[in-house]
Amino acid sequence: MIKFFRTIRYNLMIKNKTGKPAFQTGRYFKYAIGEIILVVIGILIALQINNWNEERKELFNETKILNTLHAEFQQNRKTLDSTLTVLGNAEKALTFVLTNINPEPKLNLSSQKLDSVLFETITNPYWKRSEYTLRNLENSGKLSGLSNEDLKTKLYEWSLVSTDIEDKDADATIGFNYLLNYYKVNGSLRSLDAFGTLITEGQSTLSYDHLKFFSDITFENAIDDCLVYMRQRVMRYQKASEIINDIITITKPKND
């Protein structure tokens, strides 16, 4: 379009070039001014087009980031739900044991069933979550560039609760290792796997009495410790679940 205007102006100048020198000089001056204006207009148009292209690229890149976050946190929700189920079963076992501790324990359970309950008390699963996309955003500095303020807030909350979960998982490991060592010293680990989940060679043929655990204060303290850690972990995992659901909602593709 600029070339078109320039051609028209140039033709007009040619038609009027036989005029007096002073007027001709004025025409050349006006032509030069017009050229400058056309160049400036061209630069402004080019800058605007470039800005549009950059905005389109940023929008496209952010859409890709949102889609990746959406898929990643959907997977995190699946693994978290699975982990919460296992933790829930372990919490029930710990609660059962703690409520049945007594100076003269009487449990209406078979030896095999009792061993399976005790085996459940040392179940200590870890939630293996994915944070690959979030870490890339943080390392590249693109996290602060996201346009959705609600999403940035939720991702910040996610980082906090994720760190809290790591700390509490580490604390819980100490407690569960203590309980595991108690079973090693005072009972039969082989027999705790009553249904051959991991040990398929059968229960121990040596003498042991797991019922006596229920009248031991040391055992009670170990169970109590593990139960507290378990409940703290479940609370944090449930908080993480709420944040995950919010992130999934925010990042949901518009065409879904």
What does this structure look like?
The structure is a single chain. The chain is mainly α and 256 residues long. The model has no long low-confidence stretch (mean pLDDT 82). Helices cover 74% and strands 0% of the residues. The two termini are 42 Å apart. 16% of the residues are buried.
First-to-last CA distance: 42 Å
**In terms of structural class, how would the helical and strand content be classed?**
mainly alpha
Number of helices: 7
Strand content: under 5%
Number of strands: 0
Biggest pleated sheet: none
State Rg: 36 Å
Portion of residues within helices: over 70%
Molecular shape:
rod-shaped
Can you tell me the residue ranges where pLDDT is under 50 for at least 5 consecutive residues?
A: none
Order of helices and strands: HHHHHHH
| Average pLDDT for all residues | 82
Brief synopsis:
This protein has 256 residues and is mainly α. Helices cover 74% and strands 0% of the residues.
Question: How are the secondary structure elements laid out?
Answer:
Blueprint: H1 2-15, H2 21-99, H3 111-121, H4 132-140, H5 149-186, H6 189-192, H7 217-250
Helix pairs in contact: 1-2, 2-3, 2-7, 5-7
Protein traits:
single chain; 256 residues; rod-shaped
